Amino acid sequence: MRYMTFAAMLLLVSLPAASASESSKLRSFERGSWQQLLHSHAGHPTLVHFWGVTCGPCKVELPQLGAFMKRNPSIDVVTIDADLVPDSNSAAQSMLQRAGLSSAENWMFSDGFAERLRYEVDPSWQGDIPRTILISRNGEIATIEGVAEPSVLQKWSDGQVMAAR
C-alpha cells in the first residue's frame, strides 16, 4: 500500500514538471511558419519578438518582455530566436525561462536559409535584432526595430484593450 501511495505521489509531482517542459519547447520556424503564425493569431492582438542568444540588447529586453506578458494576459506573446547559432536550443530555452517567457509561444529559426525566413516576415528586413512586430486585432502591423521601450508596448496594449470594448 505504501508503495502505491509513493508511486501515485511521484506521478503527481512529475506531471507539472512534464507540462512545464512541454510548454518551454521551441517550435521550428521554417518556410511557411510566418503565415501559419499570422493565421493562428488572427483577430487577437499579438506581439511577435525576434531575438537571439548572442544579442546583447535582447538579454536586457527579454525580462522586460516577460514582465509585459505577465501584466497583459490579453496580448498573445510570441518569441522567435532568429539568430543561427549552432546548438543554441538549450541556451534559448534557458534565457526564455529566466525571462519569464516559458509560457509564451516560442519559436526558433530552423532553416539554414535565414534570408528566406526574414523575407517572408518582411521583405525589407536585413536581419537586425531585436525586432518587435505588433499586430492589432484587425491585422494592422507596426514594426519596432531595435529595443522596444516598455512604455511603448504598454501604450499599444492599452489601445488594444480599449479597441476591444
Q: How many domains in all?
A: 1
Shape: globular
Order of helices and strands: HEHEHEHEHEEH
Briefly note the CATH topology name: Glutaredoxin
Q: CATH superfamily membership, which one?
A: Glutaredoxin
Q: How far apart are the first and last residues' alpha carbons, in Å?
A: 56 Å
State the name of the first-level CATH class.
Answer: Alpha Beta
* Proportion of residues in helical segments: 40-55%
Continuous helix count: 6
Largest sheet: number of strands, sense, barrel closure: 6 strands, mixed
Summarize the structure.
With about 160 residues, this protein is of the alpha/beta class.
Essential attributes:
single chain; Glutaredoxin; disordered N terminus; alpha/beta; 165 residues
Model description:
The protein is of the alpha/beta class and 165 residues long. The chain contains six helices and six strands; from the N terminus they run H-E-H-E-H-E-H-E-H-E-E-H. The protein has helices at residues 2-23, 33-40, 56-71, 89-98, 114-121, 150-164; strands at residues 27-29, 46-51, 76-81, 105-109, 131-135, 141-145. The chain has a six-stranded mixed beta sheet with strand order 1-4-3-2-5-6, with helices on one face. Mean pLDDT is 87; it is low at 2-23.
